[in-house]
Amino acid sequence: MPVAVLTDSTAYLPRSTVDEYGIHVVPLYVVLSGRSGREGEDISSADVAKALSTRGQRVSTSRPTPGDFVAAYRAALDAGADRLVSIHLSSELSGTWDAARVAASQVGEHIVSVVDSRSAAMGTGFAVLAAARAAADGADRDTVDRIARAAVDRTRTFFVVDTLEHLRRGGRIGSAAAILGSALAVKPVLHVEAGSVVPLEKVRTSARAVHRLVQHVVEHAGEREVSLAVHHLAAAERAERLVAELRARVPAIRELHVSELGAAIGAHVGPGAVGVVVCLPAEEDADGA
């Protein structure tokens, strides 16, 4: 394909999809028990869930380096592409997008377009998937870029966590909100707004939080044919129940992906977290064109 699509390891796309469309994935780094490794290659979701459940163990993450991106961009060009679209984790949550921009300036901004997904997980992944499908159909770089950005605008991410402490430690949510939530035993429903993690609603129990999560998804989807993704960390049974409820209550599901969060995002949400990403149809799809 003349246009190659790249992303980072926090998109959590199914491996079969990555292989099918030849998507290039640049891993983030996770520091665990004094060792640093690449997400999904050296350190797994299970490694992070175990560490976060062990008293005294800390987990941190770091972005890929500009050099990592330069190497990925050159590999994609060497494989036959002549233009690149690189779509990444929210710039409000990570320096990954910034590192990609630095690398693009070195390779050539007329060659590489860098897109901020303003989200995470399949909040990024749906934009990557839309871009990869357009590239596979032969679209030029500007069109692939436009389609990716349009998918970003159509995507919402909702999630619940067992504790806000991991988000607080990672600087992904304000300390005041985290401390208040812990003191009152609040189980918040959160969402990603303008690239940042923001409390959407506060409830008293985990069961109620998941119930309200589903209600928000149902209300946002309406009668439209939507794409959904369900994520979890060390909460497979809860995710399965969530999938069953969404299938029963969302009237038109185009595609539904289920995956465990990787180490980089899992380190910030903690074990027990579940989330749903909703991608609305493009206007031409909604109009039946």
Task: Explain what you see.
Pfam families: DegV. Keywords: Lipid-binding. GO terms for molecular function: lipid binding. It comes from Blastococcus saxobsidens. This is DegV family protein with EDD domain. There is one protein chain. This protein has 289 residues and is α/β, with parallel strands linked by helices. It folds into 2 domains: 3-28 and 63-153, Rossmann fold; 155-286, Hypothetical Protein Tm841, Chain: A,domain 3 (2-Layer Sandwich), CATH 3.30.1180.10. Helices cover 43% and strands 26% of the residues. The chain has helices at residues 15-21, 45-52, 66-78, 96-107, 122-136, 141-153, 165-169, 175-183, 206-221, 236-249, 263-269, 283-286, and strands at residues 3-8, 24-26, 29-32, 35-38, 59-62, 83-88, 112-116, 155-160, 187-193, 196-203, 226-232, 253-260, 274-279. A 6-stranded mixed sheet has the order 10-9-8-13-11-12, with helices on both faces. Strands 2-1-6-7 form a 4-stranded parallel sheet, with helices on both faces. The two termini are 25 Å apart.
Question: What distance lies between the first and last C-alpha atoms, to the nearest angstrom?
Answer: 25 Å
Find the count of extended strands (DSSP E, 2+ residues).
13
What do the pLDDT scores average to? 89
Shape: globular
- The total tally of domains equals 2
- How is the largest sheet built, in terms of strand order? 10-9-8-13-11-12
Count of runs of 4 or more consecutive helical residues: 12
What is the second-level CATH architecture of the largest domain?
2-Layer Sandwich
Order of helices and strands: EHEEEHEHEHEHHEHHEEHEHEHEH
Percent helix range: 40-55%
Give me the secondary-structure category.
alpha/beta
| Rg over alpha carbons | 18 Å
Assembly of the depicted chains = single chain
Level-1 CATH class name of the largest domain: Alpha Beta
> CATH fold name of the largest domain, please?
Hypothetical Protein Tm841, Chain: A,domain 3
List unreliable stretches of 5+ residues.
none
Major sheet size, sense and barrel closure: 6 strands, mixed
How much of the polypeptide forms β-strand, as a percent range? 25-35%
